[in-house]
Automatic annotation (TrEMBL), chains A, B:
It comes from Neomesorhizobium albiziae. Signal peptide: none annotated. InterPro entries: Tscrpt_reg_Rrf2, WH-like_DNA-bd_sf, WH_DNA-bd_sf. Transmembrane segments: none annotated. Pfam families: Rrf2. This is Rrf2 family protein. GO terms for molecular function: DNA-binding transcription factor activity. GO terms for cellular component: cytosol. The lineage of its organism: Bacteria, Pseudomonadati, Pseudomonadota, Alphaproteobacteria, Hyphomicrobiales. SUPFAM superfamilies: Winged helix' DNA-binding domain. PROSITE patterns: HTH_RRF2_2.
DNA sequence: CCTATTCGTAACTAATTAAGTTACATGAAA
DNA sequence: TTTCATGTAACTTAATTAGTTACGAATAGG
């Protein structure tokens, strides 16, 4: 798996879960979609469970399901639940006492805070249902997909 | 130096260059501002030279200067010249043939392209002159700074 | 209850990336 | 022609993230 692919991996997994409807999918099964192993999947989507986006059940027949209909799950929520900023440039002080650095950090933090608001607003317009719809369009056009859903 | 601090490092350096006015500053000197070494500085700002933001001269008395007045250098330009996206989430295909992944990637790329436009627009409103002004405000208030400028 | 299944998580290893360093060639000024 | 400064390749070190192993906890079904 490549770097910084957690958002895309999570959405891939969630869209498969949306397609699976009420059936729950095991970590093993989800892992096969993104070519990794079950532990990585659990780690990746643990935050989504805490955010009330997915729920997991243990034991035979257990696995993962969406906690809500895909229409009600926005990409903004998913992104936030993953717990990393979309704008990962650092604003950590490295030259304590330097007023130039202070000015730079203040400006970048102001920018980041405005920008994150904008990005969340934009991401809030997309839902998992949109993704599922687009997937089905592609399926109807091509008539085959690699994974069993 | 921490990760992903290239934007903040570059702005720190550039603001010192703005304050130095016409004097040119050596890589060694710039490096001391961000507590690293000259080679890292040259690497960091090489892209800025190619973008026409700074110019460098060799030999005795040489070093780095802004190519234009700080009023005319926006943070959008600086960010672009560093050559890395502000939104570094991956959209590389990892499951070729999976239509779900294709749908996810298409949506994320649409989002990224819109978002980058928005961010560039926001960053275009800040200039190096704004940074220098803020620095001077801080200096007037506190009356001391760590670096010799 | 006992067993099989599945998640939860800690601990370790491997791979990747970025920063830091060394070394040396190139060019300019006095 | 000597000294100073950048340009850059090559290498080393440090940090981060993914991947793996191992095992404990919970649950369904007989």
């Amino acid at each position: 798996m490549k770097r910084n692919s957690r958002l895309s991996s999570a959405l891939h997994i969630l869209t498969h879960m949306a397609e699976a409807d009420a059936r729950s999918l095991t970590s093993q099964h989800l892992a096969s979609f993104i070519h990794t192993n079950p532990v990585v999947v659990r780690r990746t989507i643990a935050g989504l469970r805490e955010a009330g986006i997915v729920s997991s059940t243990r034991g035979p027949g257990g696995g993962w399901q969406l906690s809500r209909p895909p229409e009600e799950i926005t990409l903004a929520e998913v992104s936030a639940a993953l717990g990393e900023s979309l704008l990962p440039f650092s604003t950590e002080p490295e030259s304590p006492g330097c007023l130039v650095e202070e000015a730079v950090i203040a400006m970048l933090e102001e920018f980041r805070s405005e920008a994150e608001r904008l990005l969340a607003e934009k991401l809030g317009r997309y839902t998992l249902a949109d993704l599922a719809t687009d997937y089905r369009k592609r399926f109807d056009r091509i008539g085959v997909t690699r994974h069993a859903v």
